[in-house]
Amino acid sequence: MKRARLLLLQSLLLLALVIAVSSCAVRYVCPDGSEVLDPNLCSSADKPEPEQIAPAEKTSNLVPADVQELLDQRKDIASMSYNYKRVDKPLEPSLKFWIKGVMVKRELPIQRKVLNKNEMDIIIFNTVSRTANFYCESQKYCIKTGDICSADYDQYYIKTPFDWAEEITSAEKTSEELVFNRKVWVLKVNEDIFMWVDVFSGLPLRVDVGGERHEFDVPVFNRVEDDDVKFTEKQDVYS
Fold first, then answer.
1. CA–CA distance, 14 with 20 (Å, rounded to integer)
2. Is the C-alpha dihedral spanning 121, 109, 224, 102 positive or negative?
3. All structural domains of the chain with their residue ranges
4. Alpha-carbon distance 90 to 149, whole Å?
5. Torsions phi, psi of 49, nearest 5?
6. pLDDT (tens digit, 9 = 90+) per residue, 119-176?
7. 1.10.3720.10, 2.60.120.10, 2.50.20.10, 2.60.40.2470: which CATH number matches 65-229?
8. Number of H-type helices and E-type strands within the chain
9. 3-state SS of the chain: helix, strand, coil percent to 5?
C-alpha cells in the first residue's frame, strides 16, 4: 500500500515537472501577444524589422571632380610625340619620343662628328610584353642599319606622360600657368609630386619629383602613325 502511494506521488511530481518545463519553454511573446516556442513561428507581419545599419561613410574623393575631368581628357589621346629633357641634367641631350597605343619609340644619343660611326640610334618598346629592341635607322650615321639586338626594357624605358598620369592617386590644383606656350594646371600629386598638366590633353608636360624635372616639349597629339613607331631606314636620323 505504501509502495503504491509512493509510486503515485512520484508520478504526480514528474507530471508537475513536465508542465513546469513546458510552461517555461513557451515564453517568447510575439508582437500580437501570442506565445510560441520559436520566434520564427510568429507571423511575418509581426516580426520585428531587422536593425538597419547605416552604410559606412564614403572616404573623401582624393581627386576633385574638376581635376578628374581634366585628367580624363587623356582618354581621347591615342598617340603623342614630344622632345624629352631631364632639366636637372643639363648635359644630357633632348630625345625625341613617339607613342602610339602600346608602342613607344625613342631616340638614343648619338655622335654626329664622324659618319657611319654609331651602332644603334633608336629603341622600340612594347609596353604590354615589356620587350625592347635596338635598331639603327640612319644611313648617314650608322655603321649598318637594321635590327641590332634586344635591349633591357627597365634600363632604357623612360616614363611617358601617360605613365605619369596613370600613377595619380590624389591631386589638388595649385595654380594655372603657361608651359611651352600651352595652358596648364599645376597639380600637387600623390603628396610630393608636382605636375604641369596640359588643359587640352590632360597629360603632364612637366613633372617635378625628388629634385628631378622631366619635361615633354613640343607635344603633338594624335598625329603619330603606325610607321612612326616602327623601324624605318632613313638617310639621316629622323630626316
1. 10
2. positive
3. 65-229
4. 29
5. -65, 140
6. 999 999 999 999 999 999 999 999 999 999 999 999 999 999 999 999 999 999 999 9
7. 2.50.20.10
8. 4, 13
9. 25, 35, 40
CA distance 167 to 186: 16
Any idea which residue has 589638388 for its cell?
Answer: 172
For residues 139, 140, 144, 148, the Cα torsion angle rounded to the nearest 10 degrees is -80
Determine contact, residues 100/226, Cβ cutoff 8 Å: yes
Q: Which amino acid, residue 175?
A: S
Q: Which amino acid, 74?
A: R
Instruction: For 40-96, write each residue's pLDDT tens digit.
Output: 666 554 444 444 444 443 334 799 999 999 999 999 999 999 999 999 999 999 999
